[in-house]
Amino acid sequence: EVQLVESGGGLVQPGGSLRLSCAASGFVVSGHHMNWVRQAPGKGLEWVSIIYSGGSTYYADSVKGRFTISRDISKNTLYLQMNSLIPEDTAVYYCARDGAAGHWGQGTLVTVSS
Amino acid sequence: EIVMTQSPATLSVSPGEGATLSCRASQSVSSNLAWYQQKPGQPPRLLIYGASTRATGIPARFSGSGSGTDFTLTISSLQSEDFAVYYCQHYNNWPPWTFGQGTKVEIK
Question: String of b and e for A70-81 (b: at least 16 CB within 10 Å)?
């Protein structure tokens, strides 16, 4: 069974950093395109980043230069390193598998506030 | 960046009635279009991919159509569990794979 479990969210001050993790089971992370998608409170979905199965990475303009997506094949885990956080980054962050994402985690809440 | 525009923002429908949701892309995305359903406190659920293919386990009352820039999600007869927010997303060529702003389907 495919499962995605995010962790690492929490309260952080503006300018701070967090690293989100997405532990995968039931499939190999490196064999699929893996996305991060976020949702600010009461708002819609925003695509954040992707790491292709081949390793190429892309980012939304809103996070480019501040966020880094990566994966650890040995741990079958996806990561999102978030630096220079701003209040507008406050959201539930989901990891999701593939372009048309049929598998999502339950999300982890990131709150950026002083 | 391709902009996805959904209409209407809110759709009021009585149970048993049909609903038609629209999604327009600012440039062609071919058939690389997905529809998701989201309920409060839950992650999105994939309904349709490839513009018209139902995902595993999705009831036949959900159907998708369109290609290029104009897409439609049709729910033939709304059940109580269908009242939710629906999003379209393109996954054409290069990212960003943007979402529409969502259509809320509410009980009339």
Answer: ebeeeebbbbbe
- Taking residues A85-104, report their average pLDDT: 94
Cβ–Cβ gap B102/A45 under 8 Å: yes
* 3-state DSSP assignment of residue A87: helix
| Cβ-based burial of B78 (10 A; exposed 0-12, middle 13-18, buried ≥19) | buried
Query: A10-12 and A108-112 as β-strands: parallel, antiparallel, unpaired?
Result: parallel
CA-to-CA dists, residue A112 to A12, A14, A48, A83, angstroms = 5, 6, 17, 11
| Residue range A20-71, pLDDT digits in tens | 999 999 999 999 999 999 999 999 999 999 999 999 999 999 999 999 999 9
Chain position carrying tokens 């490839």: B50
Q: Which candidate in A3, A4, A45, A108 is best for mutational testing of the B interface (most B CBs within 10 A)?
A: A45
- Strand, helix or coil at B61? coil
Write the CA distances from B45 to A89, A96, B35, integer angstroms.
23, 11, 9
Please give the order of strands across the beta sheet that includes A18-25. A3-7, A18-25, A77-82, A67-72
> Who's near B61: CB < 8 A, 6+ residues apart?
B75, B76, B77, B79, B82
Q: In angstroms, rounded to a whole number, what is the distance separating the alpha carbons of residues B95 and B25? A: 14
Asked if residue A83 lies in contact with residue A75, where contact means CB atoms within 8 angstroms, the answer is no
| Smallest CA–CA distance from A97 into chain B, residue | B46
